[in-house]
Amino acid sequence: MNSDNIFLIGKQHKICQDYSVSQGETIVMADGCSSSKDVDVGARLLALNCMEYLSRVRLFDNIEDNYNDIGYTSILLAQKVCKELKILTECL
Question: In degrees, to the nearest 5, what angle opens at C-alpha 42 toward C-alphas 79 and 22?
């Protein structure tokens, strides 16, 4: 599958706070929340960790069996990365 995206930056934002990633037939998009610092990084971390989780789940289980865990696990993985990078988890 080929995919493309476009994000338009709001007039009050200096940088784009959104992120998307695609792999095979899966697309993950994250919308940064401008009320916190480093939300552009947070959106990227959430999307990338979600994609990583989805690729691991597909290898072992039926994704529908793990649907409720996708968001929770993606956030936990992203929080670990935030701690390693020494940035506040509020960016997520």
Answer: 105
d(CA 29, CA 74) in angstroms, rounded, equals: 12
- Bridge partner residues of 29 (DSSP): 20
Provide CB contacts within 8 A for 5, sequence distance 6+. 20, 29
Q: Assign 17 a pLDDT band (cuts: 50, 70, 90).
A: confident
Mean pLDDT over 27-49 rounds to 87
Q: Which residue has the tokens 């865990």?
A: 69
Range 39-45 contact pairs with CB under 8 angstroms and sequence separation of 24 or more: 39/91, 40/15, 40/16, 41/85, 41/87, 41/91, 42/78, 42/82, 42/90, 42/91, 42/92, 43/17, 43/18, 43/19, 44/19, 45/78, 45/81, 45/82, 45/91, 45/92
